[in-house]
Sequence to fold (451 residues):
Amino acid sequence: MPDLSGIVKAYDIRGVVGEQLDAALVRDFGAAFALLIKPEAPAVVIGHDMRDSSPELSAAFADGVTSQGLDVVSIGLASTDQLYFASGSLNLPGAMFTASHNPAKYNGIKMCRAGAAPVGQDTGLAEIRDTVEQGVPSFEGKRGTVTEQDVLHDYAAYLRNLVDLSGSRPLKIVVDAGNGMGGHTVPTVFDGLPIEVVPMYFELDGTFPNHEANPLDPANIVDLQAKVREVGADAGVAFDGDADRCFVVDERGEPVSPSAITALVAVRELVKEPGGTVIHNLITSKGVPEIVAEHGGKPVRTRVGHSFIKAEMARTGAIFGGEHSAHYYFRDFWRADTGMLAALHVLAALGEQDGPLSALTQDFSRYAASGEINSTVTDQVARMIAVKDAYAGKSGVEIDELDGLTVQLPGGAWFNLRPSNTEPLLRLNVEAADRAAVEALTDDVLSIVRA
Fold:
């Protein structure tokens, strides 16, 4: 039996095309997915990004699905949140072909059940892997059919209906699509809005000729920052490769923390539903739960990762959820993540008042943060224990291990240290009252991690 552990990840399938993924294997994944969801749905909706390998692989997946007697609705080129829209609005399970911000040689499959409900290791992905490894059983009945359906305009209209920009003052924004799917969705979503879009790298190109399509890496927003200052824009927005995440810079070209965006959007959602629950993962700023509570909401803390966020949203009926990785989840969007909807909220908030974005977001940015710092280690467990031992005996220190190690210090500073699931790394996030305190605490923790 083949060993697929290298490409079947916690939330998706991802690997190097031609080495780890090819059409024959993807066909088997399609057939196994069809077997998983056959009792629940008559068809599967499939979309793909702009990578050179995506059309062939998505067609192979469709062939696998139809070989098991289910139909396929192909939406063609799509962002990941556009696929979630199709899954939700059509009430069908879905599969999206993308490797997000990974280099061009990679591709992958994100799968969901009807209503954009996630498929991860504990919700079907392990079963799909087992079916493929053991050999997909043949189906003797009638094959399914493939039909094409364009949902881009419906997706755009749905988003615009959720955020009212009709009263906004005219805005100029720079959008860096990173040669990814934002170049496909932004023109339609923003059509007719009081927003002048200055496009950057809208050409769909899965080789990412200008920069990696990962806006969380500061190196990848340098062009956006410069263009915002050059044209005197009100803001800048960068999307990742499959356009499900967005990153914002203000009118000075300065990055706006995803935690600040989470707090801003949460406040807007709480206006619509006073007292609602808002989910935040444990590495978002502590300003997020503070602001949510101050506006009458109920903050709920969860582990890092979209499956945990979505599960907790379902359990609590939460109206919104945010992660420090710039993933934003909306109950009104089937609890799925959509960077586009978050961007519209930010622009609506900006357009409703006369001040600059820097002043608007200052109210939501209460503390200084390190950003995520990765350290390569030979023994993750030993280094984690060393850090825990160093802080456990100190007066007033609180420690929890919900996801890695979170240490709360007297005076309000805190840090989280988490092991990577796929690499020999420890990931450190630090927050404190000011930059000097962040740097001091960061140096202290790293001296133990890297000893």
About this structure: The domain at 154-256 is CATH 3.40.120.10 (Alpha-D-Glucose-1,6-Bisphosphate; Chain A, domain 3). DSSP finds 14 helices and 23 strands in the chain. The chain has three domains: 13-150, 154-256, 368-449.
